[in-house]
């Protein structure tokens, strides 16, 4: 079954010359780890925001686990880790996670077990009683991730989760995403412009540029198709540009 289907999504922001998304369709199978890859401004955040229902597309439809993304069910099946922190900096990791857990209606004992597990696997045990305002960006990202997965979503979407984080946090995040996928079968969809990281993490990638979906496939399929050494080279052959230009 498909975890996510997006059909013919288009979106133009008022006043901009080019559409942010131009007729993008995606189909993502349950249990996949999918990288939505493209340079800055490609339309990744816009696409994710539409999938999550944060902004409206001009046209097109999105289904999550077979249900329209506007259905109340989606609140429980879809988890989102935004680029910005949705956290309280005057509270500790424990307090933040308890707050979010209560919001989800997770019963107290189960909630504490989940919080303890997440703090441990994300390497935050030793700072669990310190206020977030003293934390590095990478540590805040890890708590952002923990807050978004407390509710055990079937589909998890992350917007550039490893950008600007320290090496240790990056490894903790990547390892945890792999574990979540392996052990719970969580479908993981993440945006990135880090092609080497995506090549290592993802079994499927979608390449977007200037609002258009350019390629779909596994990293190996695309590397073969473009006779490339890696995904960086696939992107170069596909667009004539490096991803950072
Ligand atoms: N609120 C907005 N108003 C007007 N234009 C916007 C808005 N948000 C994004 N855009 C434009 O839409 C296009 C796609 O932006 P988007 O943020 O979706 O790309 P992105 O791939 O996520 O890039 P980044 O990696 O920089 O976040 C860009 O040209 C951007 O300037």
UniProtKB/TrEMBL annotation:
Gene3D superfamilies: P-loop containing nucleotide triphosphate hydrolases (3.40.50.300)
Keyword DNA damage included in the entry's annotation: no
An example Gene Ontology molecular-function term: ATP binding
Coiled coil regions, renumbered to chain: none
Protein keywords: ATP-binding, Nucleotide-binding
InterPro entries, per database record: AAA+_ATPase (IPR003593), ABC_transporter-like_ATP-bd (IPR003439), ABC_transporter-like_CS (IPR017871), P-loop_NTPase (IPR027417)
Domain ABC transporter: 4-235
Name by which UniProt lists this protein: ABC transporter ATP-binding protein
Lineage: Bacteria, Pseudomonadati, Bacteroidota, Flavobacteriia, Flavobacteriales
